[in-house]
Amino acid sequence: MSLKISIIVPCFNGERYLKECLSSVLSQDYDNCEIIFVDNESTDGSMELAKKLFGESDRDIKISSAPNIHRHAWCEPVEKGMELMTGDYFTIIAVDDYIVPSYISSTVREIENSKEEVLCSQSPISRFNNGGAGMVS
Known about the structure:
Radius of gyration: 15 Å
Number of helices: 4
Shape: globular
Strand content: 25-35%
Number of strands: 7
Largest sheet: 4 strands, parallel
Helix content: 25-40%
């Protein structure tokens, strides 16, 4: 049985980037993953857009919300996502990031091929930058 990966997407007022971010999450070439979108009391229509984008997908998707207790922090939606996750491993994708289609499959391959137990991993991310995408390392 292949590893199950949980992709947690915390969001606060990320409507500007949401379509590209969620499209990248939905386009993963690895099938055994769940997507957990947790809105942090956005006021810009992020939750409605996420529901619309996810409504067209047959992926394992959970949509939830978390109270915005600590301004400019994402601990509440990440903690909620971790409560909901059922994966063997998880990754957190910020709403202003995107991932290439092979991100999860490459990560799983590295985990499965490791001679050691993998507890944590880090990789470069791509972040939206001035209306376009750019690499952040």
